[in-house]
Write a structure and sequence with these properties.
Elements lengths: L5 E7 L13 E7 L14 E4 L3 H18 L2 H8 L1 H5 L2 E6 H16 L3 H9 L2
Helix pairs in contact: 1-2, 4-5
Length: about 120
């Protein structure tokens, strides 16, 4: 899944295959991992796993709601019926390069620095 993904958002409600995210350089994926086995199927060369924050989970919920409405998915409907439990089982998949850029932007904004210069400096690391 998400091989060579360069942007956008993906929400995965079911199991994934191995080598998830190989070549993923942009975008963000949220994977439902109720049994905690997803990390064993991730390509960590370019990716890191994070815990989704409240803003992430609001976006995930909205996407799951849209999916349930469009497809009448019984899985999505069940997740929404017990959202607190389902939400706690999502993992955020973040490309390392994208994380560096986002962190550089946040730092530049917080310190009043030039955002472009800060991003360029972070890409040299």
């Amino acid at each position: 899944g998400c091989e060579y993904m360069t942007g956008g958002r993906v929400v995965v409600l079911g199991p994934t295959g191995r080598n998830f995210g190989a070549g993923m350089s942009g975008g963000v994926a949220y994977v439902h991992d109720p049994d905690g086995t997803f990390p064993s199927r991730v390509n960590f060369e370019m990716l890191s796993l994070e815990t989704p924050d409240a803003e992430d989970l609001a976006e995930v919920r909205e996407l799951v709601e849209r999916h349930a409405g469009a497809t009448e998915s019984s899985l999505a409907t069940a997740m929404l019926a017990d959202w607190d439990r389902a939400a706690g089982s999502f993992v955020k998949v973040m490309p390392n390069d994208l994380r560096r850029v986002l962190d550089a932007v946040a730092l530049a904004e917080a310190e009043g620095l030039d955002v472009v210069e800060t991003i360029m400096a972070s890409s040299q690391k």
